[in-house]
Target: dTTP/UTP pyrophosphatase
Amino acid sequence: MMIVLASASPRRRELLARLEPRFEVQPSRVEEVTSKKRPSFMARDLARQKAEYVALSHPDDLVVGSDTIVYFRGKALGKPRDREEAERFLSELCGKWHVVYTGVCLIKGGETETAYALSRVKLRKMNKEEISEYVRGGSPLDKAGAYGVQDGVVEKFCGEYENIMGLPVGTLAGMRLWKER
Model:
């Protein structure tokens, strides 16, 4: 049995390697769409979709799917479509608290288990020029909410740091299918 990470994210690879150094990576190619309304359900549903896609070609392996959502004032912020949207996300989030949800889904032998982690985050205040410079660097374009916790833009947070990065390893390590691997 292999462990298969259903993600192209280098951050998720780095985080999974903290728990298990040997695993394969097969990015999921699903369109990230969900009908769920609550952010915890959205994150788990999208993680499940990713894991199910990869599990089709790995029926005997343990597949790990994950999805992160930034939730602010009743809106789910995923990855920005372009630089303009990234700047808008950051302008809205800077200096304010918001919530990061990461859903995790494990699939092995037809059995599915889901969980999620929640962290509260406050970005530091940045002016328009600082936001534009950060976005020009390219880092925000592949991250939910248009920022990376590791990029020095977070002022404070409560909860699991790895959740904000995209894979809550504490949550994952506590899941039954992970323990039984």
